[in-house]
Amino acid sequence: MRIGTRFLGLHLAGLLALCAAAAHAAPRNPAAKADSTKKAAVSRPAAKPAAKPASKTFKPAPKPIPSPVVVPKPVAAPPPDTTWFGRPISDSATVGTRVYEYIAYPTLQLATWPIQNILAPGVELLTYPSQEPIRYFLEENVIDRTVDLFSFGRDRDIMIYPSISLASGTSSRVGAVLRDQAPFQRSSERLMAAFNYYVNGDYRFRTYLTANDMGETRFDGKLAFGVNRIDNTQFYQPDVNTLYFYAANSEIYTAQLDHPLLLGFNARGGFTLRANRHHDAPPSLFGSNVLTGDFFIDPETGTVGRGEYRGLNETFLDRIYQATLFRDTRNNVNIPVAGSWFDVSTYWHDADKNHDFYEWRGRYTKFFKLGRERYEISAAEERTRGARNLDSFIRDLELQRLRQQIFSRKVVVAHVVAAQSYELPGNSMPVYGLQTLGNDTPLRGYSGPRFRNYAVTAASLEYRFPILRIMDGSLFNEYGVYGRSLDELDIANLKNSWGFGIRVRRPDMFLFRVEVGIHGFSGMTLNATADAPF
């Protein structure tokens, strides 16, 4: 209660100051001032002939003309407030949603107080060395110039730029990205292509074309194609968590159609043809590369460690039928501060060589913007903060000033995922049918798809706050668990990761993120990539 009263007092004081400044700057009587100026111009005496001295034409100053009485026009009453926590009421679906937000926002404000006032200043202090280069990029307009440098075409709607991702092991990669905002001179279509080259010589290429309102209908479409040449895939075997290496080469062809439903939901149907070419990984310093565990035991023959039972060392086709229900109410894809994302999908795999199976996956992400202030930091605020040395920066880490400048603008993100695969009688699911936890699924403290099994579920809570105009700080804590079934999850398989990082983005483009993920107090993973987990 004490904090809320002080916060309200600050807002009232700021409002009074603005009103006083406006009153001081405005003229007392604009109409009278304009009228007197006009009269003075008219009554100015005309120039006399040069023969007469100026002293003889001197006349006393005319008496001031009284200003006319100006009757103020009636001012219309201000329109009623049509916002709810800074958002239009029309954006809120129901009264129940508004009541929920009214209750949730003060509750989350209280729950995030330790993070806001203890952990978040620490993250900004840790990211301080990166702030000045980014500030320089902003002040010198380097980012916009760079975007313009990589833009081509008549309307500058084609971009070709390099990409880089740093990760542990052989997951680090470099590449190039192509984006075309109007590939056929139509703004309703988008083309994207990306090529990635890994440090061990593997490579991956994917491209897709999207179209909105196809043929002046409400259908949205997508065509995609991908090539994977990964000869050194790390695979943690289920149950035993031992490493196995194999080659996972494939070509993937995908077609999708979306159509809107009621209440903002959308339906998606799709078909994917996956051509698998699995074989042994090239010899290297892997140590013992042996398949173990119950997942690789053939129940008919009792053979242990036969890779062909799970699609290894085989070439086969997988025809995948997809049905998805999704809903997207985010205010912005690159800087989401409100709304949510929901999707649940089922996939039926009609595969050769008795590898049929089916699976489902679901995700839900909710964004809570806390505080009524604008989330982004403006250019004027950046100039006010200015270039500072470390001493002045530390002095600025004062509770009330941080609350006013930065941390009253914050976003809490809740993210939940769940998935499960099912084998069909008489069939054996291939290795890529297992669900995964690790890196971006979430559990960012573990590199790559660290844990695999038939069923996984995970939850993440992330706290985001702006540091610069295009730079956010983040703190996250995540939990995940895996097992044979969601009904039989073992608490012994519960894993946790936590960490912090920065995100650099623009309203129209996500640029990159750098995150440090830690599991327990023994392991750490650095993620530097241009992909956003959610």
Descriptive overview:
With 534 residues, the protein is an alpha+beta fold. It has a domain at 159-371 and 412-529: membrane protein fhac: a member of the omp85/tpsb transporter family (Porin). Helix content is 21%, strand content 39%. It has 9 helices and 21 strands. It has helices at 2-25, 30-42, 95-111, 113-126, 128-139, 142-149, 379-385, 390-395, 399-407, and strands spanning 83-84, 87-88, 151-152, 158-165, 173-180, 189-198, 203-211, 220-236, 243-260, 265-280, 315-328, 339-351, 357-370, 410-423, 435-437, 451-453, 455-468, 471-483, 495-506, 509-519, 523-529. The chain has a 17-stranded antiparallel beta sheet, sandwiched between helices. A hairpin with a 6-residue loop joins β8 (220-236) and β9. α4 (113-126) packs across α9 (399-407). The longest helix is centred in the N-terminal third of the chain and has 24 residues, at 2-25. The radius of gyration is 32 Å and the shape is globular.
SSE blueprint and pairings:
Elements: H1 2-25, H2 30-42, E1 83-84, E2 87-88, H3 95-111, H4 113-126, H5 128-139, H6 142-149, E3 151-152, E4 158-165, E5 173-180, E6 189-198, E7 203-211, E8 220-236, E9 243-260, E10 265-280, E11 315-328, E12 339-351, E13 357-370, H7 379-385, H8 390-395, H9 399-407, E14 410-423, E15 435-437, E16 451-453, E17 455-468, E18 471-483, E19 495-506, E20 509-519, E21 523-529
Antiparallel strand pairs: 1-2, 3-4, 4-5, 5-6, 6-7, 7-8, 8-9, 9-10, 10-11, 11-12, 12-13, 13-14, 14-17, 15-16, 17-18, 18-19, 19-20, 20-21
Helix pairs in contact: 4-9
